[in-house]
Amino acid sequence: MNKLSQEFQFFRSHPLGMRTLLLTNLIYALVMPIVELFVGAYIMRNSEDISLVVIFQLAVYTGIPLTFLINGYLLNHFPIARLYSLGMLLSGVSMFAMMSLDNLDTMGVFIAGLIMGLSYGFFWANRDFLALNTTKDDNRNYYYGIETFFYTITGIVVPLAAGAFIAATDKNGWFGGNVNVAYHGLTIGVFALSVLASILVHRGKFQNPKRAPFLFLKFDRLWNKMLGLASLKGVAQGYIVTAPTMLILSLVGKEGSLGLITSIGAALSAVLLYVLGRITGPQHRLLIYGIGCGLFVLGALFNAGLYSAEGVILFMLCLLFARPLLDIAYFPIQLKVIDVVAEKEGRNEFAYIFNHELGLYLGRLLGCGLFIVLARYVSEYVALRYALLVIASVQFLGYFAMKGIVRDLGKRSSPETS
Question: Which of 205, 183, 202 is nearest to 86 (CA)?
Answer without folding.
Answer: 202
